[in-house]
Amino acid sequence: MLLESDNEIERCANIIWNYHLLNHSVKKSDCIFVLGSNDIRVAKRGAELYLAGYAPLLIFSGAVGKLTQGKFDCSEAAHFANIAKQMGVPESSILIEEQATNTGENISLTLKLLKEKGLRPESYIVVQKPFMERRSYAVFRNYLPETKLLVTSPQISFQDYANSELSRDDILNTMVGDLQRIREYPKLGFQIAQDIPNNVWQAFEKMVAWGYSKHLI
């Protein structure tokens, strides 16, 4: 990694973090759709929204991923659902999809499950990690172009987000990699295109030059 001041790395990281955040205001919707991961704070955010009355249905989607292999004793979706139940969400209000291994599958497999159960939500609150909000929105919008959709995440700042389960290095690499995917994946039909301001892409190029490239395509 090239030597560079911590302040400059922090400045570029904040630019990218803020770009990924959509800052949607949560509104009452038909369902809360929580994407599985290794970050249980996402599950807690989804449960908090349900308990606050934002939707009558709480969906968890996710199989066992690279980062959760051996970490949970079940799928990401089932583990997140258990957290929600411990927080007071009734099991009857929870829908679990346990096969998805990426965001596209989270959506397509859950839509199939909803259809099988005769459910057709017209509005969604999607819950994901803060630095994956924008890409999640882009993928969902690709599958659900006309549906009311907003995205939210644990209400934690960039400076405070790293913990024992998710290191600062993990966050920075994922932020950079997801920004690359926001640029490249629309060409492959995986998500809708979104504008990337010049200063955001310049921050990306600097972060890659400094070695934050572990999550690149």
Description:
- With 217 residues, the chain is an alpha/beta fold.
- The protein has one domain: Rossmann fold (3-Layer(aba) Sandwich), CATH 3.40.50.620.
- It contains 8 helices and 5 strands, in the order αβαβαβαβαβααα.
- A 5-stranded parallel β-sheet has the order 3-2-1-4-5, with helices on both faces.
- Helix 2 (40-51) packs across helix 3 and helix 7 (168-188) crosses helix 8 (198-209).
- The two termini are 19 Å apart.
Brief synopsis:
The protein is an alpha/beta fold. Helix 2 (40-51) links the parallel strand 1 and strand 2 (58-61).
Question: Kindly state the mean pLDDT as a whole number?
Answer: 94
CATH architecture: 3-Layer(aba) Sandwich
Order of helices and strands: HEHEHEHEHEHHH
Number of domains: 1
Q: Tell me the major beta sheet.
A: 5 strands, parallel
Number of helices: 8
How many whole angstroms does the radius of gyration measure? 17 Å
Overall 3D shape: globular
Uncertain stretches of 5 or more adjacent residues: none
Strands in their spatial order, largest beta sheet: 3-2-1-4-5
What fold name stands as the CATH topology? Rossmann fold
The share of residues in extended strands comes to 5-15%
* Helix residue percentage: 40-55%
Query: How far apart are the first and last residues' alpha carbons, in Å?
Result: 19 Å
Query: Would you tell me the structural class of the helices and strands?
Result: alpha/beta
